[in-house]
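Exercise 7b. Backbone tokens:
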């Protein structure tokens, strides 16, 4: 028996190593999300077989005048180091679905568009001539505007963990002499008024990280600057990646 009594230890060591690997796999499967598991699985595939983990997501609220933009997937590679990006996108998707189930948005689709952007989730509230959000060319909310923003404030009150920006936009206008009017101040003042109204409705001030006015410099896609549909307030809910 001399020199032959230790061979079983090698086999036992291989067995325990295999069992440890099995238990690690079971633990990983039990604690990881489906998207994380897909990311880990794709990490071990050849590069040519790797695919985008999450599809581009369109805004789900139909608005025939506005086209939703898709979330870019440019240059994306699957792998564990990108799991934080995947988590951020999951948060965006969940937030988008929550907002789209909000009864205020569902029952007033003509006033809203909800879509995903690279920075987060954007809610656009339109200042339509037939049912205006603001009084004509003024920095004052209409009764309809107070009702819509009041209901949105309630939604944000339920999302205290998310921060957002308020962005004011207007359409291009000319005065009686045919000269282009300055719309920067009007858009900025309306965004500021929206912030003050939200805070009055118990939205936490720290949730609002930025207030800005863009005048008529950012018209909607496929819309000219003179179109009244460009009059809107955008609420950009930030989701870190």
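Sequence design result:
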């Amino acid at each position: 028996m001399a020199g032959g009594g230790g061979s079983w230890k090698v086999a036992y060591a291989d067995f325990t190593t295999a069992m440890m690997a099995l238990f690690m796999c079971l633990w990983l499967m039990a604690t990881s999300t489906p998207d994380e598991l897909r990311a880990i699985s794709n990490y071990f595939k050849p590069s040519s077989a790797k695919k985008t983990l999450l599809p581009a997501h369109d805004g789900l609220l139909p608005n025939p005048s506005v086209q939703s933009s898709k979330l870019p997937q440019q240059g994306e590679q699957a792998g564990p180091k990108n799991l934080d990006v995947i988590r951020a996108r999951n948060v965006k998707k969940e937030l988008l679905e929550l907002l789209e189930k909000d009864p205020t948005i569902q029952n007033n689709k003509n006033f809203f568009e909800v879509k995903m952007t690279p920075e987060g989730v954007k809610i656009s509230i339109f200042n339509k001539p037939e049912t205006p959000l603001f009084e004509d060319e003024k920095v004052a909310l209409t009764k309809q505007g107070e009702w819509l923003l009041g209901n949105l404030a309630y939604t944000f009150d339920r999302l205290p963990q998310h921060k957002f920006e308020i962005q004011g936009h207007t359409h291009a206008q000319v005065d009686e002499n045919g000269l282009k009017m300055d719309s920067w101040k009007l858009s900025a003042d309306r965004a500021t008024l929206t912030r003050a109204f939200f805070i009055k409705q118990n939205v936490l001030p720290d949730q609002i990280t930025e207030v800005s006015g863009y005048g008529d410099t950012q018209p909607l896609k496929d819309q000219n600057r003179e179109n009244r549909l460009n009059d809107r307030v955008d609420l950009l809910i930030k989701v870190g990646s």
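Instructor comment: Residues 52-238 form a domain with the 60s Ribosomal Protein L30; Chain: A; fold (CATH 3.30.1330.60). Residues 7-31 form the longest helix (25 residues).
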